[in-house]
Amino acid sequence: MFIRVIVRAIIFLAILFLILLIPSSSPPDPPPGAKNPFAWNRDQYWSSLERELRSARPGGCNGVASKSDSGFAEIDRLLNNLASRNCQPDDSIFPGLESLFFEMAPQVGVCHELLPAYIGRFKSMRSLIKKQSCFWDMNSETARNCLYRLIYGGRLATEEVMLQMPKDSVPALILADTVSSSTPSAEILGVTIHSGDILVSRGGAATSALIARGNDYPGNFSHVALVYVDDSTGAASVIESHIEKGVAIATLDQYLKDTKLRVMVLRLRPDLPFLMADKMLPHKAAGWMLERARARHIPYDFEMNFNDTAKYFCAEVASTAYRNFGINLWMGLSHISSSGVKAWLGAFGVTHFETQEPSDLEYDPQLTVVAEWRDPETLYKDHLDNAVIDVMLERAESGERLKYDRYMLPLARVMKAYSAVLNMLGGVGPVPEGMSATAALRNKWFTARHEKIKERLMRLADEFKEKNNYVPPYWELVNLAREARQLEFGD
Question: I need a surface site. Which of 39, 306, 329, 442 has the fewest CB within 10 A?
């Protein structure tokens, strides 16, 4: 009798294992997008700048003094011109400003004393072009390309020269525009933030790099959070949506405990009509979202549908709060047009590819950049992660799809059921709410593959630095990441 019970139990478990082993149907590849992802297509130009960096290194500051003086003077002339008139995004001033800024980078890279002046010009350029964009159609390709080339390109150039310098000479905090606000305030990372401010950041996970890079305008940020400051106690709360647990409320200390490779503070322009009518509107919007988060559990929105008010991905926390008070953020919606990127994101549950991406919020002309903090110790990690993701997404575009270890599927489904029970009890399980067991395994495969390529890339980058005596710039990191991928996987 006892033996029969054991046999039946074994048979039952074997049948259950086989049932749990049945794979889910793979999501079909989404149709191609109507737009074309941005591409620099300037490899020869980047190489020429690198050659200039190498040739200028022996002369140091004295060798570049005359050229840097004239370069800064010409940038200042263009910035003054830009400040004195209204320009459309196809104005000839913008390509000239872009070229000058890139061409100054090798000189700053060999003369660390020029960095403050270079950063100052970048801040002025970003501020002026954002003011100009208030009069542009933010959904036009010309406007988006212009903003991206100068703002993202300017940051990339600035960080390239930062990486050539001793870490103790690189400022972690860069203050940008001085923007008045009447809402309650608090301090974070040496910056005064106000209720209603938006924190845009970059996490340290491989998926954070995928979020930052996986859209038509690859960027630097992967997460959005909204700040509320209590007007009676001065206590600050950060409202954000996590993949693991949905919408949550954190203190500033708790917010910073999660890995942050960089943080940018964005604030609504005070001259917006809604704010001129009600200066406390940002505080009211943040307070409304705070109460909403306290009132009920709001799951994470893996579909990235910013019109779904039952679930929120991180960007929706800010956009929904402000939309409730008449302000529509992301004046230029994000697009994910690459078929490979769409297929990979679709395998994680994304169904909406015209959406709100964290990196694109910086280009919204309704917002000003108050400050940007980056950890000099981990800035290089940010670039390494990006390079690996860019190379992995090249393979996605060539038809490679996210895989998973099928033998792990039964266990993953058991863990998903366990997680569902924890979710019902208000807890957090090993498989995020809203994510399937198959998607969780795909994420594990993706993360492991990213880590292997990155480990090999770090060794190749160290060899490059030892051989050339400078840190490989981003375009070299991408080339080395392609080599690392080939060495690791060979396909």
Answer: 39
- Taking Cα atoms as reference points, which of 384, 387, 356 lies closest to residue 215? 356
Q: Are 126 and 369 in contact (CB under 8 A)?
A: yes
pLDDT digits (tens, 9 = 90+) for 427-447: 888 888 888 989 999 999 999
Rg of the chain on CA atoms, in Å: 24
The length of the chain in residues reads 491
Mention every residue, 6+ apart, whose C-beta is less than 8 A from residue 59.
110
Q: How far is CA 351 from CA 83, 335, 355, 395, 420, in A?
A: 42, 12, 10, 21, 22
Q: Which two tokens stand for residue 146?
A: 């212009």
Averaged pLDDT for residues 317-338: 95
C-alpha 69/C-alpha 64 separation (Å) is: 8
Q: Considering only 70-74, 151-155, 434-438, which range has the smallest mean pLDDT?
A: 434-438
The average pLDDT across 210-220 equals 95
Percent residues over pLDDT 70 in the chain: 93
How far is the C-alpha of 355 from the C-alpha of 305, rounded, in Å? 7
Kindly state the DSSP code that residue 300 receives in the 8-state scheme.
B
Residue 26, pLDDT above cutoff 80: no
Whole-angstrom distance, CA of residue 451 vs CA of residue 197: 34
DSSP class of 360:
G
Q: Are 336 and 202 in contact (CB under 8 A)?
A: no
pTM for this prediction: 0.93
Q: Write out the CATH class of domain 174-374.
A: alpha beta
For the chain, the structural domain boundaries read 43-171, 174-374, 389-489
In one-letter notation, the amino acid at residue 234 is G
Phi, psi angle pair for 224, to nearest 5°: -125, 135
Cα–Cα distance between 233 and 230 in angstroms, integer? 6
pLDDT band of 12, cuts 50, 70, 90: very low
CB 124 within 8 A of CB 75: no
C-alpha 396/C-alpha 347 separation (Å) is 12
Per the structure block, which two tokens stand in for 129? 């072009």
What does each C-alpha distance from 155 to 36, 102, 161 come to in angstroms? 23, 10, 10
